[in-house]
Amino acid sequence: MAVTIVTFVIFFIVPAEPARLCAGHRADRNRSSAAGSFLGLDQPLYAQYGRYMKRLVVERSLGKSFATRQDVNQIVVRAAPVTASLVFGGALLWLLLAVPMGILSALRPRSLLDRGHHGLRHPLDHHLQPCGRPRVCLGRSSHQA
After folding, report:
1. How far apart are CA 27 and CA 20, in angstroms?
2. 71: phi then psi, degrees, rounded to nearest 5
3. What is the pTM of this model?
């Protein structure tokens, strides 16, 4: 629920003028207000959010792009393979670097590599680790010096 509210706020409340995007940049004020009315931007926010949720949950539609008027579901489907290849490629690169570095650090404790690896990893622990997850899950105690 929180994700849909944040998404709604980002795309529909932030001043981006979706009516003007829909009507075109050269549209006059009357045409722009008609586009806003067509999009339902003249309705209260709770009604707009309700229509957004209905379209998202019941119709399983992300709507139409204001700029290109294409179905957003189709845009996402076309972009998914590229996004997935970037995600999996990044994960593979991370594994190829992190696993050997971790093994070498474990084989030579307190070496320059181990201290460098710990120096890189320790500041990131606080930013990347989920809240409430004990550090012992990462293979070390939080009381370790």
Report:
1. 7
2. -70, 125
3. 0.54
- Beta pairing partners, 71: 64
DSSP string, 16-78: --HHHHHH-TT--HHHHHHHHHHHTTTS-HHHHHHHHHHHHHTS----B-TTT--BHHHHHHH
User: Would you give the distance in Å from CA 65 to the centre of its chain?
Assistant: 18
Contact 49, 8 (CB under 8 A): yes
Rounded Cα distance between 29 and 9, Å, is: 24
Which of 17, 40, 39 is CA-nearest to residue 29?
Answer: 17
Quick one: 23 exposed, middle or buried, by C-beta within 10 A (0-12, 13-18, 19+)?
A: buried
pLDDT tens digits, 5-58:
888 777 766 666 777 777 777 778 888 888 888 888 888 888 988 988 998 899
56 Cβ contact partners less than 8 Å away, ≥ 6 residues apart: 4, 62
**Cα end-to-end distance, the chain, whole Å:** 41
Report residue 64: phi and psi, to 5°: -115, 150
